[in-house]
Specification:
By secondary structure, the chain is α/β, with parallel strands linked by helices. The protein folds into 2 domains: 2-147 and 267-312, Rossmann fold (3-Layer(aba) Sandwich); 148-264, Rossmann fold (3-Layer(aba) Sandwich), CATH 3.40.50.460. It has helices at 24-37, 48-54, 87-99, 111-124, 148-169, 184-192, 207-219, 237-249, 269-287, 307-312, 319-328, and strands at 2-3, 11-16, 41-45, 57-60, 104-109, 128-132, 172-177, 197-199, 225-230, 253-257, 290-291, 293-298, 301-306. Strand 2, helix 1 (24-37) and strand 3 form a beta-alpha-beta unit. Helix 2 (48-54) packs across helix 3, helix 5 (148-169) crosses helix 6 (184-192) and helix 7 (207-219) crosses helix 8.
């Protein structure tokens, strides 16, 4: 965590970085309105860290964020910037930041965004506060990230429809959801969707065990099943799993990869409210001279979390949820 002199703070910047997530616009709105309420100027950095390097700025007013709380995506654009991975790129960004006379930065994104934000403070003393916006829910230090709840509900809606088809045709479906290094979406969707098994990085499940579950269901008259898997590092992992199931048990699985549809859409009430609370808190942290932190939510309380912890520590899956999924899938 860092501390800086917030005396005379007048102008803050806000950016979104990495993958978009439903609720980012609600967070932007909260940053802008909290800043203006406190007599601060607020400026959008377009296209994330690349926009910081290239000095792509737009001044934001109250009207700039009107009627965006319900919109998915991010009105100030986002992306990943290879140049920012290098010290020279971050030096350019810091120079542009100082030339623009910004006093602080709110960075909305995930672990990659926070890694960059932490380096901006450590290398160039740019005061930054993070807001967790990623559908993967894999950021340490917050119970939920902005966009996760919407992504889960989007996936669940699709799975409910797939189950109708699975039941109508007596089929086994393998549904792949997003979650590069994290099984949070898969586990929550699997539990809510009544899946027979969930494949996630945090819990190894043998193909033989899955085949036994399918066989057990068939013996008691069950003719359709739903399996959920997190995509892993490369999308399409479900094809490999389906092949293994066919080879081991002789069961043929129909595959459905939900993909980027989970990132879009209007955010749920939970995501809008979380984004509003964390976006507003980020501005208040900067005003109080606190930086190199993320505004997180733990046990329904907004708390500051050291940025370095957000990406260096592993967020754990709830083992009780895994056990419950096993119990309810018999």
């Amino acid at each position: 965590m860092g501390v800086f002199s917030a005396n005379g703070i007048k102008n803050i910047a806000v950016l979104t970085s990495g993958g978009d997530a439903p609720g980012m616009n609600a967070a932007i709105r909260a940053v802008v309105r909290t800043a203006i309420y406190n007599k601060l100027k607020v400026t959008a950095v377009i296209h994330g860290y690349e926009g910081l390097i290239k000095a792509e700025y737009v001044n934001l007013e109250l009207s700039s964020v009107a009627n965006i709380i319900q919109r998915g995506g991010t009105i100030i654009k986002t992306g990943r910037c290879q140049e920012f991975f290098e010290p020279e790129g971050r030096e350019k960004a810091a120079k542009a930041f100082k030339q623009a006379s910004f006093d602080g930065l709110v960075a909305i994104g995930g672990d990659g965004t926070f890694t960059g934000a932490n380096l901006l403070w450590n290398e160039h003393k740019i005061p930054v506060v993070g807001v967790p916006g990623t559908i993967d829910n894999d950021v340490f230090g917050t119970d939920y990230t902005i966009g996760f709840d919407t992504a889960v509900n989007t996936a669940l809606e699709a799975i409910d429809k797939i189950r109708d088809t699975a039941a109508s045709h007596d089929r086994l479906f393998l549904v792949e959801v997003m979650g590069r290094n994290s099984g949070h979406i898969a586990l929550e969707v699997g539990l809510a969707g009544g899946a027979e098994e969930v494949f996630i990085p945090e819990n190894n499940v043998s193909i033989e065990e899955v085949c036994k579950i399918i066989e057990r269901g068939i013996k008691r008259g069950k003719r359709s099943s739903i399996l959920i898997c997190a995509e892993g590092k490369v999308a399409g992992r479900s094809y490999e799993i389906a092949e293994q199931i066919k080879k081991s048990g002789g069961y043929e699985a129909k595959i459905c990869i939900l993909g980027h549809v989970q990132r879009g859409g209007s955010p749920t009430a939970k995501d809008r409210n979380l984004a509003s609370r964390l976006g507003s808190a980020a501005v208040k942290y900067l005003m109080s001279g606190q930086c190199d932190i993320m505004a997180g939510e733990l046990n329904q309380e907004v708390v500051p979390i050291a940025l370095h912890d957000t990406f260096s520590k592993k967020k754990k899956i709830n083992d009780d949820w895994i056990k419950l999924e096993k119990i309810l899938s018999i």
